[in-house]
Amino acid sequence: MRQGHAKSRHSCFRQQSRKGINEEGREDLIKKINEHATNVDGK
Question: What pTM did the predictor assign?
Fold first, then answer.
């Protein structure tokens, strides 16, 4: 029963992360890319 609960929670988390990639993930990616670009330019 414990394993089944963990599995269902994992699948729910995957669905949430998928939505996050579509909406918030893009902004996070852009921020990371911009930060990386500034770091490279600085060096």
Answer: 0.33
